[in-house]
Design a protein that fits this description.
Order of helices and strands of chain A: HHEEEHHEEEHEHEHEEEEHEHHHHHH
Oligomer: heterodimer
Strand content of chain A: 15-25%
Largest sheet of chain A: 7 strands, mixed
Order of helices and strands of chain B: EEEHEEHEHHHEHEHEE
Structural class of chain B: alpha/beta
Number of strands of chain B: 10
Number of domains of chain A: 2
Strand content of chain B: 25-35%
Strand order of the largest sheet of chain B: 6-7-8-3-9-10
Bound molecules: adenosine-5'-diphosphate, magnesium ion
Chain lengths: ~425, ~220
Amino acid sequence: MIKNYLKVALKVLGRRKFFTFISLFGISVTLVVLMVATALLDQVFAPEAPEVHGDRTLGIYQVGLRSEQIAYTGFAGYGLLDRVLRNLTTEVPAVERTSILSVQSTAISYLDGKRVESWFKRTDGEFWRILDFQFLEGQPFSQDDEKNGHHVAVINASTRDRFFGGKPAVGKTIAIDGQTFRVVGVVKDVPVLRVVAFSDVWVPISTFKSSTYRKDYIGNFMAILLARSRADFPAIRSEVAARLKAAEAGIPNPEMYKWIFGGADTLLGAFSRVLFSTNSLADSHPERLLGVFLLLMMLFMILPTVNLVNINLSRILDRSSEIGVRKAFGASSWTLVGQFVVENVFLTLIGAGIGLILAAAVLSTLNASGAIPYSDLHLNGRVFLYGLGIALFFGLFSGVYPAWRMSKLHPVQALRGRQV
Amino acid sequence: MIHLQEVSKLYRTDRVETTALDNINLDVGKGEFISVMGPSGCGKSTLLNLIGLLDEPTSGKVALDGKAIDRYGDRDLARVRNERLGFIFQQFHLVSDLSVVDNVEIPLLYRKMSNKERRRAALAALDRVGLSSRTRHFPTQLSGGQQQRVAIARAIVGRPGILLADEPTGNLDSQMGDEIMSILEDLNANEKTTIVMVTHDPRMAEKTHRVVRLFDGRQVQ
Ligand SMILES: Nc1ncnc2c1ncn2[C@@H]1O[C@H](COP(=O)(O)OP(=O)(O)O)[C@@H](O)[C@H]1O
Ligand SMILES: [Mg+2]
């Protein structure tokens, strides 16, 4: 039965080459765009190396400080995060590890008199234990290095190429941002879209030239917390919220700010907190961000779907005799709906196949072009499943209505070849 | 076997109202071979479509095998058409995208059976109409007479008790028409298939058991 359907489907596709081309083009281009978009999102949000534990990581990515007069929304200072995280792992066993890290900034070096810019991030030792970097040589710096202000650095492969001509770098020194560091490890490049992990050079926080940062509530730091499991998220969230509240008592400039807002979020939650919070990051609604993603995807998919519906309707005219015959010989309306939906899903799956190949090509071109530094975009199983889901969406939604219209054709009219 | 009682069919379009059939009473017994004759537009096809459950009468009763079908839903009608009826059309109505044997299999797609059984039955039906050598061809590669024989094979593949043929020889030259006619006579004589055939050709009508004449939607004689 299905075989018979597919035979007809293939023939119909071959017979109406122009329509087939338009349909397949619409489906595959839409899929390419969506799959490239999901691959990008995946690179930010999916729990992949080095953020292997992304699915059980919470972060304090941004905070809000407010009074009646002014409001600050942005990165936290080290002092605030340090206070919130202090003894958290011992007091709340659900928290396995915590880490404080700075937002990467550009730092200047001079190589043979030439100015070179690198991304520069300051972290503690725990950073290297929560994230799983792939070390090409050496090893990360430790919590001890951080405590003692050792001038050590981990660099990525690209930086090793730039500074050391690609030769082993561990043990050598690197001058950056007016300071000198001894290289202790070299890691594989991390895509720029990995906001927590990404940098070119990582050094201990304590190598700051001055120590005033230790007290600040506002700065350019964030924190990540590794939970033992996702089930612990609610408990950890409320503990962090309570600690942020308690930290209000220690605001260094109480004449300016009175209240602290924020919380521990998943990465997705953090984005939506920034996007949707009506009250200085008071609340986070990751489901809203997901909703917006889905809505955008839907909107983007409506056009090709409508296009497909029209193409499918026009195919009816072509096939009224076949419909009449099938009805005369015992096909019920539902059987016919089934046939045309199967045909349409088949068509969209062909489109999906083409889209998949095109998307893989686009992604590897993007990777090679260097438009997104160190991007490692790829079609993984998840993105493939998204694509498949999207294709099925097309197949079903663009097929059901025309199929229903077709099946409602009166057999006598259909055999006469009347227009719908 | 076929029972029509006071059957009328009206077609209403925006302004005009056409009486395609007016108070028809007709009984066709098992194994009968009847022909329906009359000028163009007198309602012959309409009559055949009503018998074939492809259309519903405006008033009156249609019964097959003693069962009135007026309360049947889409699914039941489809099942009865599939099991009890076989259609042959003037324009053949073969699915041009399917090979000869795939066309013949169509009625069997709507029955529970294996692909193998389907294929075997389709090949047997094609053998019956003398087309065993053309099973992999496509309809457009065949002559009109051959196409109509494929259509007959499709109509008989499910072994229906009733064959409905609407001007089956209307598009064929007289020699091909005679071939088709002898296949139908053979099916009627040897398989006891009940046949209702619409025709313009008195030579064909002569060979049937009985002629029903229509004029302007009414039965004459
Ligand atoms: N769908 C329809 N709408 C309106 N009038 C129709 C329709 N089908 C048939 N008729 C009319 O009904 C009459 C009988 O048609 P038909 O049964 O096809 O005649 P025949 O087959 O004898 O040539 C004709 O006058 C025709 O115009
Ligand atoms: Mg007619």
